[in-house]
Fold this sequence. Notes:
- The structure is a single chain.
- The protein has two helices and 28 strands.
- It folds into two domains: 3-275, Sandwich (Jelly Rolls), CATH 2.60.120; 278-420, Jelly Rolls (Sandwich), CATH 2.60.120.10.
- It has helices at residues 371-379, 405-409; strands at residues 3-4, 13-16, 37-42, 55-60, 72-74, 95-97, 113-121, 126-135, 142-146, 150-157, 160-164, 167-171, 175-179, 185-188, 194-201, 225-227, 239-245, 248-254, 261-266, 271-274, 295-300, 307-314, 317-319, 336-344, 358-361, 385-387, 390-397, 402-403.
- The strands form six sheets. It has a nine-stranded antiparallel sheet. The chain has a six-stranded antiparallel sheet with strand order 6-25-24-27-22-21, with no helix packed on it. Strands 2-19-4-3 form a four-stranded antiparallel sheet, with no helix packed on it.
- It is globular and about 85 Å long.
- The longest helix has 9 residues, at 371-379.
- The relative contact order is 0.19.
- By secondary structure, it is mainly beta.
Amino acid sequence: MALCYMPGFGNDFETEALPGALPQGQNSPQKVPYGLYAEQLSGSPFTAPRGTNERSWLYRIRPSVKHTTRFAPKQFPFWKSAPCPNDHDQPIGQFRWDPPPMLDEPADFLAAIRTMTTAGDVLTQVGMAAHIYLANADMVDDYFFSADSEFLIMPQEGRLNIFTELGIMQLGPGEICVIPRGMMFKVTLPDKTARGYICENYSAKFTLPDRGPIGANCLANPRDFKTPKAAYEDKQTPCRLTVKWCGKFYVTPIEQSPLDVVAWHGNYAPYKYDLRTFSPVGALLFDHPDPSIFTVLSAPSGEPGTANIDFVIFPERWMVAEHSFRPPWYHRNIMSEFMGLIYGNYDAKEQGFVPGGMSLHNMMLPHGPDAVGYEKAVTSNLQPVKLENTLAFMFETRLPQLLTKYGATLETLQDDYIECWRDLPRNFTGKP
């Protein structure tokens, strides 16, 4: 991992696993070095503006048409795509879960995915799905790509080795990676088991948010995004390629590994980012800004200023505001918020929201600090304090997130979550 990447900004990179494998002077010469095939992978329309036009040239041992034969249906019963209405009869409400237990049966990364919420419509390429994964087996001769979506993957426990067509990324808790739509990959587990979160984005690609008055620096800085160096797998054994297409799954047998790209150049690539390099900004005197200042990546919608998805984190940071209610305030809004905790405590919910857990607060349903958090916030002697050893995140969308049957019946669902606000006192005195 050595190449700096700027999501959505049209950079162009080149890397080769063998010296001289990259053609020079043209993308598709009559004969490619090493007897490779030239192939273009496009992530945008051919005529997209230069700043948003994304494509990469791949120089591979076999063209990808050799990596498919005849497709057959495949089932992943716990992996859902939007729209997924009427999957259960749970009424609306605020939801929170303890960490789900690891699976007893063997499950590789694909079989381990469990969908918690869906939003929008995969067929119209609008919306998202929030998943967890509970993996305990390697993908050895199995490979995957999604024609529906890009994947934002975030480990919470256990590392992932993600071998993509364009190279290898190792990912641990505190890091994320994004795998573009159509990119083939497989996942192995250095620590034997792994648990984490996935945001499956059906819509426009994740990009860096505009900083506005913040200026040129802070938040997620482009230099900290990394793409992989070229690496390839030259393996001639029976394998399987699974494809997600229009919300359904299909598998095709192949005679070799599809991860056979020896060199590539372009700007349509997977990338990783260490969330600990995020540089937060905040209020230096009183009150505090909206949580949008913690946005790492944003997938835009067609409406300016309204995201299809915002990926937001709440990392270590100093709290210095005077005469202020420092935790997130009580609120209702048009966005739907799926939250998780990677490690540590979350300052607004110090009890009941634990690493590996999740919460869901849908559009216009009220939420905010629990009674313990409120009491601490209004009675503390406000001195500068640093929140340490904490990393929470939020997948936020303008669309309602519909809970799946799996999420509604998950054994770790906290039936008493609503009680965390029961002891909030009536402080009204009728006097100034």
